[in-house]
Amino acid sequence: MGDEELRWFTSSFSGGNGNGCVEVALLPDAVAVRDTKDRTRVPHRYPAARWAEFLAGVRAGEFDHS
After folding, report:
1. Does 54 map to a domain?
2. 47 is a domain residue
3. Between the CA of residue 43 and those of 34, 35, 58, what are the distances in Å?
4. Which of 32, 40, 44, 53 is deepest in the core (most CB within 10 A)?
5. Residue 66: inside a domain, yes or no?
6. What is the tally of structural domains in the chain?
7. Mind giving me the DSSP string for 10-62?
8. Rounded to two decimals, what is the model's pTM?
9. Measured in Å, how far apart are the chain's first and last C-alpha atoms?
């Protein structure tokens, strides 16, 4: 499946105005992440389990540095 065939979406926190920082596409066994402002770059791909671990860390506040 080529990147042009993927269904890309941004976080609801980005306001839906197309100015988000990253876009995410769900694959059968992975997640693709790309820069919203430079879609010509190759997306990063992460195994689904690693992406789930990342999201769990975000939800647990592991990346909060305020």
Report:
1. yes
2. yes
3. 4, 8, 21
4. 32
5. no
6. 1
7. --GGGTTSS--SEEEEE-SSEEEEEETT-TTSPPEEEEHHHHHHHHHHHHTTT
8. 0.75
9. 39
